[in-house]
């Protein structure tokens, strides 16, 4: 502000002070221009302008500004930068705002908004230079400086700052794959798209190193194998390079191709399985070594228990202490995330028994310890015992060791000689076990005084034998008496 402008502001300020102090109800803010008589005294071409504000009703602050009055408007400032190529974390850069007008106010904008300084930014004392001490990628954008003289302002042209960075850490992604720890699994026959994920400015260069010569190494960040097979398994490497930052990073992914699964089979020992006496191992046989295995019992998933144990990879199922209800059916299923296949059901033939032996007359179901049957009637006895395989039956009578074989014993016409105890023995040749049961058969007939011819003949013979014995003894004693 020139001397004339300063004197104009001084005179205007004195006048305004008198006006404001004598006014009872001043406004909270006011703008005043110098009276016309002061304007006529201005010689420097700068016209004073006064801005007054008040925090309290009776106390005002007034500021006087002098404007350059000329036919030419405020010139547009020029914005320049210290360097054109900037690399993240390795560069410091400065923006310079140049103007021909002194005593101006300078403001800075970033992406069309007022610039908010952070700890990495510094302004010069006159605000004409802005320095970013350590450039980062988020500093990229459009910058401008604005020059204000009083109420007149001009903005510089936009300067775009492009920060070069990267490449960041590289990851190779497969669109149709499944991450399984340190490998990515893909299903045989699928189309597999490889994609490199990283951040870089400018765009990176890509160099691929593939596990097979059947694929031409690509030069882009993506490529596709249309129908993947086992020959495509292995390590895929991609070197990502930035020609400006001179940095490179390597991305690596291991690919495992899962075959289409075929049905497995269950192997087991070709030995007789005996209840309570044996344990058995069932093995799920499959050519797909990478596939997971799940066992099923009676169509439901099988879970380990005290008697059912699985190997570490579920390939073998061990049944301890076989029970007769462990017959199954058993199935094993191989699976991966893309497919599954199940074996044919397997039933185990478990040998057991014989259990308790029951003897029943005729078709009766109840066990009998004593059976009465009429003389000359027929009698059928049934011997039953639960056994696998079916038991073999052997009948005996208390007066005969070999009477009959088979589950059923039939007598067409009972006589007195059929009276007595009958025994049935059930045996299992596989388990080596045998069990027996007995029943008493009583033959009963009508009471009669007449004897049958056979009985009479027996009685006669018995009497004759007794008489013969008596005569013989009498003769013996008589002969011995004569000698004495």
TrEMBL record:
Residues 1-30 form the signal peptide. GO terms for cellular component: cell surface. InterPro entries: Ig-like_dom, Ig-like_dom_sf, Ig-like_fold, Ig_sub, Ig_sub2, IgSF_CEA-related. Belongs to the immunoglobulin superfamily. CEA family. Keywords: Disulfide bond, Glycoprotein, Immunoglobulin domain, Membrane, Signal, Transmembrane, Transmembrane helix. It holds the Pfam family Ig_3. It comes from the Eukaryota. The chain crosses the membrane at residues 455-478. GO terms for biological process: heterophilic cell-cell adhesion via plasma membrane cell adhesion molecules. PROSITE patterns: IG_LIKE. It comes from Myodes glareolus (Bank vole). This is Ig-like domain-containing protein. Residues 77-161, 169-248, 264-349, 354-440 form the Ig-like domain.
């Amino acid at each position: 502000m020139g001397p004339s402008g300063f004197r104009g502001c001084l005179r205007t300020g004195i006048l305004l002070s008198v006006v404001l102090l004598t006014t009872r109800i001043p406004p909270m803010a006011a703008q005043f221009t110098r009276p016309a008589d002061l304007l006529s005294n201005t010689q420097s071409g700068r016209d004073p302008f006064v801005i007054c504000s008040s925090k309290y009703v009776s106390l005002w602050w007034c500021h006087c500004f002098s404007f350059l009055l000329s036919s030419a408007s405020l010139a547009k400032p020029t914005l320049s930068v210290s360097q054109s190529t900037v690399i993240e974390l390795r560069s410091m850069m400065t923006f310079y705002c140049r103007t021909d007008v002194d005593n101006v106010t300078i403001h800075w904008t970033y992406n069309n908004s007022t610039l908010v300084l952070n700890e990495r930014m510094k302004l010069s004392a006159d605000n004409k230079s802005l320095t970013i001490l350590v450039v980062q990628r988020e500093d990229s954008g459009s910058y401008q400086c604005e020059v204000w003289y009083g109420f007149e302002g001009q903005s510089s042209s936009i300067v775009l700052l492009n920060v070069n960075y990267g490449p960041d850490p590289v990851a190779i992604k497969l669109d149709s794959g499944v991450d399984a720890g340190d490998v990515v699994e893909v299903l045989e026959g699928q189309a597999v798209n490889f994609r490199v994920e990283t951040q870089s400015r400018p765009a990176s260069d890509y160099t691929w190193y593939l596990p097979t010569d059947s694929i031409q190494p690509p030069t882009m960040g993506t490529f596709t194998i249309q129908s993947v097979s086992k020959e495509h398994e292995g390590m895929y490497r991609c070197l990502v390079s930035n020609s400006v930052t001179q940095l490179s990073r390597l991305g690596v992914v291991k690919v495992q191709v899962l075959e289409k699964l075929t049905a497995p089979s269950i192997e087991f020992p070709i030995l007789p399985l005996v209840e309570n006496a044996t344990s058995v191992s069932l093995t799920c046989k499959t050519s797909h070594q990478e596939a997971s295995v799940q066992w099923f019992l009676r169509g439901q998933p099988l879970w380990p228990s005290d008697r059912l144990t699985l190997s570490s990879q579920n390939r073998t199922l061990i049944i301890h202490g076989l029970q007769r209800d462990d017959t199954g059916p058993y199935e094993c299923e191989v699976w991966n995330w893309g497919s599954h296949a199940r074996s044919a059901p397997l039933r185990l033939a478990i040998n057991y028994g014989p259990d308790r032996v029951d003897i029943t007359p005729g078709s009766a179901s109840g066990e009998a310890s004593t059976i009465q049957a009429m003389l000359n009637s027929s009698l059928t006895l049934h011997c039953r015992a639960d056994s696998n395989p079916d038991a073999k039956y052997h009948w005996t009578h208390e007066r005969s060791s070999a009477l009959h074989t088979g589950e059923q014993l039939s007598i067409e016409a009972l006589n007195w000689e059929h009276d007595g105890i009958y025994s049935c023995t059930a045996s299992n040749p596989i388990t080596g076990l045998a069990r027996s049961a007995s029943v008493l058969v009583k033959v009963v007939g009508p009471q009669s005084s007449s004897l049958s011819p056979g009985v009479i003949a027996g009685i006669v013979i018995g009497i004759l034998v007794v008489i013969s014995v008596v005569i013989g003894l009498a003769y013996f004693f008589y002969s011995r008496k004569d000698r004495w």
